[in-house]
Design brief:
The protein is an alpha/beta fold and 332 residues long. It has helices spanning 2-24, 46-58, 81-90, 101-110, 151-161, 179-195, 211-220, 232-236, 238-247, 257-261, 272-287, 309-314, 321-324, and strands at 32-37, 68-73, 95-98, 116-120, 140-144, 167-173, 198-204, 225-228, 252-254, 266-270, 303-308, 329-331. The chain folds into two domains: 27-145 and 272-302, Response regulator (Rossmann fold); 148-270 and 304-331, 3-Layer(aba) Sandwich (Rossmann fold). Strands 7-6-8-9-10-11-12 form a seven-stranded mixed beta sheet, sandwiched between helices. A five-stranded parallel beta sheet has the order 2-1-3-4-5, with helices on both faces.
Length: 332
C-alpha cells in the first residue's frame, strides 16, 4: 500500500507541473527564453547561462521538449547589444534574461509586454530600471548583486593583504555609456577617503583599449595595487588584464570570482553563480503566469571572498593566515 501511495504522489506532482505549464502557455507552444551575453558566443555560452539552464532543468524544463533558448552573444562587441535585444524582441520570446544594464535599458524601452528578468550589478532603482525593490512595476524584475555596496569591503581587504598600501589604481571603462563605471568610481572614492588611500583612475575605451598604456601609467605613479571595475569591455579582456597585473607586480582585486579563477589575486562579491541559479525561479514563475510587477527584486544573501595563492606566489606576496581563514575559496 505504501509503495502505491508514494507512486500516486509522484504521479500527481508530475501531472500538476505539466498542468501548470499547459495553462501558462498556448497548447502546443514551447516557451522561449531569450538570453544575451556581452562576452559569450554561440560556441561558448559561458558559465552564467549554463547555471541558469541547469536551474530551469531542476524545475522541470528540458531544452527542446518543454523550453527553448534563444541565446545571443556579443563576443565583447558592446555596440552589437542593442541590435541583439531588438532581434529577440522581434522574435517575441516569452521571457528575456539580461545581465547587462545597457541591454536591460534597451529592452525596457523597446517592449512593455515581454517580461524581463535582470541579473544586474547596478542599483536597479538608482539607474531607473525599476520603481522599487519591493514593487518593481512594469515588466522588469530579477536580482541585484549589490556590487557597488561592496566597494569599501574590497578596499579594506586589499589593504589587509598588501602591507602599507597607500595608492590604488582603479581600472575602468571610460565610455560614458557604461553606467557601472560611472557609479563604481564614486563608491571607491568614498571608501578610499575613510581608509586614507589615494586612488588613480585608469581609463580605457573600446573597441581597442590601451591596457599596456594604463598599466605603465599605474607603475609610473607608484600604485601599490589594482582594482578593476567590471564592465563588458574589461570582462572581455579579463585574461589580458590579469596577465598585465602580474607582469607589473600589482596585487589585484576584482568584482567577481571568475577573475580569480583566471589568475587574478583577490575577489569579493555576491556569489555570482547563485544569482543566475535564482534567476531560474523568476523565469519559472513568469512562465506559469506571474506578472513581473508582482515579483519583488531579490538581493544576495551569500558572498564570496576568493584568493589565488598561485598568483600571490608569482607576486612574491605572503598572505597572512588570518586572511586565508576568512576566505570562502582558496586556489592553491
Amino acid at each position: 500500500m505504501m509503495r502505491c501511495f508514494v507512486f500516486w504522489l509522484l504521479l500527481t506532482a508530475g501531472s500538476l507541473t505539466a498542468t501548470l505549464l499547459v495553462h501558462a502557455q498556448p497548447a502546443g507552444k514551447i516557451p522561449r527564453v531569450g538570453y544575451i551575453s556581452g562576452t559569450g558566443s554561440a560556441a561558448n555560452r559561458g558559465p552564467y547561462f549554463e547555471v541558469l539552464r541547469q536551474g530551469l532543468e531542476k524545475l522541470g524544463y528540458s531544452e527542446g521538449k518543454n523550453i527553448a533558448y534563444e541565446y545571443r552573444g556579443a563576443q565583447g562587441q558592446i555596440a552589437l547589444v542593442e541590435g541583439l535585444v531588438k532581434e529577440l524582441i522581434d522574435l517575441k520570446v516569452d521571457v528575456l534574461v539580461l545581465p547587462m544594464v545597457g541591454a536591460i535599458r534597451n529592452a525596457k524601452q523597446a517592449t512593455k509586454t515581454i517580461p524581463i528578468v535582470m541579473v544586474t550589478q547596478a542599483d536597479p532603482v538608482a539607474t531607473g530600471l525599476i520603481d522599487s525593490l519591493a514593487r518593481p512595476g512594469g515588466n522588469v524584475t530579477g536580482l541585484s548583486s549589490l556590487q557597488r555596496d561592496l566597494s569599501g569591503k574590497r578596499l579594506d581587504l586589499l589593504k589587509e593583504v598588501v602591507p602599507g598600501l597607500a595608492r590604488v589604481a582603479i581600472l575602468r571603462d571610460d565610455d560614458s555609456q557604461r553606467l557601472m563605471a560611472q557609479f563604481g568610481i564614486k563608491d571607491y572614492e568614498e571608501a578610499a577617503r575613510g581608509l586614507k588611500i589615494q586612488l588613480q583612475s585608469l581609463n580605457v575605451r573600446g573597441p581597442k583599449p590601451d591596457f599596456e598604456g594604463v598599466f605603465r601609467s599605474a607603475v609610473k605613479e607608484r600604485a601599490g595595487a589594482l582594482i578593476t571595475i567590471t564592465s563588458n569591455t574589461t570582462f572581455a579582456n579579463a585574461k589580458r588584464i590579469v596577465e598585465l597585473a602580474v607582469k607589473h607586480r600589482l596585487p589585484s582585486m576584482f568584482e567577481g570570482t571568475t577573475w580569480v579563477d583566471n589568475g587574478g589575486l583577490l575577489s569579493y562579491s555576491a556569489a555570482e553563480l547563485d544569482l543566475f541559479r535564482r534567476a531560474a525561479t523568476f523565469v519559472d514563475k513568469i512562465l506559469k503566469g506571474t506578472k513581473p510587477s508582482d515579483l519583488p527584486v531579490e538581493q544576495p544573501t551569500k558572498f564570496e571572498f576568493t584568493i589565488n595563492l598561485q598568483t600571490a606566489k608569482a607576486l612574491n606576496l605572503t598572505i597572512q593566515q588570518s586572511v586565508l581563514f576568512r576566505a570562502d575559496k582558496v586556489i592553491k
